[in-house]
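Researcher: We're teaching a course module on how sequence relates to structure. For the next exercise, students receive a sequence and then see the predicted structure as tokens, so they can try to spot secondary structure elements on their own. Here is the exercise chain.
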Amino acid sequence: MTIEAMPTGRPAVLEAEALCLRFGAVETLKSVSLTVLEGEIHAVIGPNGAGKSSLLNCFSGFYRPQSGSVRFKGQEISGLAPHRRAEMGISRTFQGIQTYPSLTARENILTGFHMRMRTGPFSALLWWGPTRREEEEFAARAEKIIEFLELEEQRHTHVGDMSYGMRKRVDLGRAMALDPAILSRWPA
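Model: And here is the predicted structure for the students to work with:
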């Protein structure tokens, strides 16, 4: 399967070329190619077992294809671990919700900024200077995400007390906190 973008002059953000993934004798992905240009939205649809999750897992680094390549902004990333890809700007949500039920919606979204933190634990103990500015910046950005996802009324509600749909929104907000160039998500 090959999905190619029409030439637009916009740079390719994510490219997969001839991805093949097998689990034993089962071939999950067979020569899958895809190009995502900056600003585009793509949908991967298909029946159960079609390889949708496997493709997203190859993009985010949870699976390594047996052959083919994955490039992010022109850089080969097939061998990079998931956390390295997240640092580069590839974020995702999972089929199962990945939130902390005992934290509020706001606190869960704030956990998404963890990888972007530049200050250390010692300055955090004093909460001054760069640490304070960084935390204030992340809090302001979390509020913008809360507003965008229309979670204002649930901001201080524990996620474990929310409906499934609201928990999925919070999970999306956590992924958005990385300010990703690519965001792969499962529909609610």
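Model: If you want an answer key for the exercise: The CA atoms of residues 146 and 152 lie 6 Å apart. DSSP finds six helices and seven strands in the chain.
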